[in-house]
Amino acid sequence: MNYELSITRLIDAPVDAVWRAWTEDTGAWFCPKPWIAEFVTQDLVTGGASVIVMRGPNGEENRLEGVYLEVVPGARIVSTDAFTAGWHPAGPFMVRIDTFADEGGKTRYTATARHWTAEARDSHAAMGFEAGWGASIDQLEEIAVTARANTPHIAE
User: Fold this and answer.
1) Is 131 left (phi over 0), alpha (psi -120 to 50) or beta?
2) Are residues 148 and 13 in contact, defined by beta-carbon separation less than 8 angstroms?
């Protein structure tokens, strides 16, 4: 069974700019404003740990822990909350897959959430997956496009 939610966007910036925005400015785009995300740990290597604290405007706090299952620089990041650092099993919600592909100098970015059950997928959709992840990708795109605009180009 495929219990997947996914968003794809063509971003008007090269893969390198989108990759840098994703990996270097993650806290600035990861959750829709006015929420903020603090990446306490972001060991962006295969098997590396991830600890994120998302904070809402009314004092809400959501701590997410997981591991990176696969990191292919400039191409793919796969993470899950099924494990925490040291491969300790946790209550899984999803596997997240982010892909970056060149499309004529722009980036085809896809963010996918794969869930263990239809109920988890439906719950994630009801929480506002489309609007929330879409707003986050808007923020990612803004950072990448701004970075591209501010990068000097070398004449060929």
Assistant:
1) alpha
2) yes
Q: Is the dihedral of CA 142, 147, 152, 156 positive or negative?
A: negative
**Identity of the amino acid at 43:** D
> Exposed, middle or buried by CB within 10 Å (0-12, 13-18, 19+), for 42?
middle
| Whole-model pTM over 0.85 | yes
Q: Which of 80, 135, 74 is nearest to 107 (CA)?
A: 74
Give the angle 73-150-131 at the CA atoms, nearest 5°. Answer: 65
Q: How far, in Å, are 61, 71, 106 from residue 103 at the CA level? A: 37, 20, 5
Q: Is the peptide bond before 34 cis (omega within 30 degrees of 0)?
A: yes
Give the bridge partners for 62, in sequence order: 54
Two tokens at 26? 């993650």
Cβ within 8 Å of residue 104, ≥6 positions away:
none
Which residues lie across from 91 on neighbouring strands? none
CA–CA separation, 35 and 58 (whole Å) = 9
User: pLDDT digits over 105-126, tens only?
Assistant: 999 999 999 999 999 999 999 9
